[in-house]
Input
Amino acid sequence: MPFQQQSKRNSRKSRKIVNIHQNSFEKGYISTFDDSRRPIESLSDMTNMELVQDHVSRPRPPLVAYGTQPTFPAIGRGKFYQSRERYNLWMMDTGANGVLYKQKDGGGYTVLGGSNTYDDEAWASGVQNKNKVYIYNGVDNLSYVDLATDAVVKYTALTTPSISSVVYSGTAGGSTHYYRVTASNSVGESIASTVSSDNAAKDRNSWVNLTDFCTISWGAVSGAVTYTIYYGNTADTQLELYSVGSDQTSFIDYGTLATNPFKIAPEGNSTEGAVFTHMHVDKKNGTVYGVTADNLLYYSSPGSISSTADFSPYNGGGYVPIDENGDTQLNYVTSFRNGKGDPVITVSARGAAGRGNLFHVTFETLTVGDQAIVYPNVYEANGQSGTYAPRATILNGDAIDYPTGLDFKSTGTSQNIVNILTTQSIAQAIEPDVAKINLEALSGAVGVELRQRNYYALPVGSSSNNEIWVHDKSRKGNPWILRWPVAAKDMWLYEDNAGDTHFCVLVGNRILEFTRAGSRSHQDDNVAWRSRLAFSALVWDEDGLNLAKIRRQYFKLLQPRGSITVNATGLTRNGTSSAAGSDTFVTTTTATGIGQWQYGGAFLAKDAAYKYGDDPGSIDSYGKSVAVLQIKPKGLLAELSWEIIGNTSGTDYIHSATNTKGQSLEDLVLKA
Output
């Protein structure tokens, strides 16, 4: 019986040629599949790697210091365009306060003037609308930088108006009429006054014009630009009726104006600027949007009306509650589209356990009698999940891509015939990694898009961002690349005034830039890092049961530099792992010298003797353009895994291909 088994193993019928080519990894990094079930076009590790050319890998660009480094801890960043020049806007913690600075092209920092003090812990951001940069951090009330003067301007809250009298004139009746008054400035509206009323009056719908009316009077409020009167036929609810200028402190209600059913008398004061957690400027008309922690979406009047964002309803601004007192939290607003492709304002609301909503907001006009009322219409985009990380929400092409806590979602679907969007998961290949993200710290995640690649700085098993993940939407299959161990508190693109784009990150309190230009590879801020490219695990049949004798495994590297090691690990018949082999490349160079010229530049042999003592000029060194490393695995193997590792500064290469050759023994399988 043993002889028969040996004879069968050696027969031609029982052997199968193994010749596996791995020279294109369009699936990128995948962690969802277990070993032996992995597609050969994927990778099990891409630490500090990126995809280049036609889906081959190379160590990522190094990080080098960019420009003048901050003197104080950076606690916020933005950008703006001033006098035809581009600037970064910084918030720094000077010890007791957050203070705003501006910086151009990596140069020095200039402190901005005016009311320039903020909370020293909250992360600050800014959005530009015309010659103003609006500052928000979720703690301080809205303010702005006036780019005409470089002054920081904070709004002063208006006091609550007080109604002195409400007097009904006309035919007596059994109805009571209730009024409240608010004061508005260029940014918002005060709390409404206490309710005042007059009774024994005729029902308002039955008033005779100029015969039946109510006169409302109130005291002037310093700093008010307009006053708004609210009316109700009950003491509980009063709706917007009419607004008058600051030169009026009385109003006569003749009963001819309809109330605005979409706006109730406010119970909060927004005249010192709302506390926004996220802001957006609609470039189409200069409207400024902001969301608050109490689920209000504020919108200013269009930018053409006022050079300062005006949230006063008198000038076309206001706010609308979205899921007020509900189970989601508004945290992001942007300009996007609905399912039909119509431009709309899109708002994200975070829910629990990766849930949430996306809402669309359009502005409609309602005509009541001769009065036109503009109001926001809010409707839900079905099938959505809200983002957990506003700063990591990326507009890439015709899609919004964002982390939901349990997944990464994209609205990158085709337009629908109905007025909704549907989302798709874009993280099926990395589900085990997504599960390691710390949801408590995910709100601090950051994202940026460059050349159709999404870069996400995420807290992976950490209380702060500690890894960068790349989703390459520029390539077939939209592969993921994991992971770059970079603790980026912020990421951004800065185009300097010479037209060069800098991909920058804030690590600790250092401003660093990803770049290969003029930098030494395989190091960050002069510190070497480790790269690893790996595949687990090659098998020889579709079930992964057969054993094989692998004769050679070749690794072709293009433009190799530094020290590069390849390792292979095999799975034996007994199911145990063992080292299968290793090989290392170390840069070897050939120096030029006499060989630069024919015996020192002589064209004739008889002249050569006179040229040996001449200066040979610049002596260059040339490394290999191609290196082939090989491993000779020992024994019979059921699986073979490989890795390429670099640990030293100056290392670089392009992994062109891995080729695995041998023979599979079809009748010899793993032991049970």
Notes: Confidence is low (pLDDT under 50) at residues 1-9, 414-420, 591-621. Residues 163-264 form one domain. The first strand starts at residue 15 and ends at 22. The chain is about 5% helix and 50% strand.
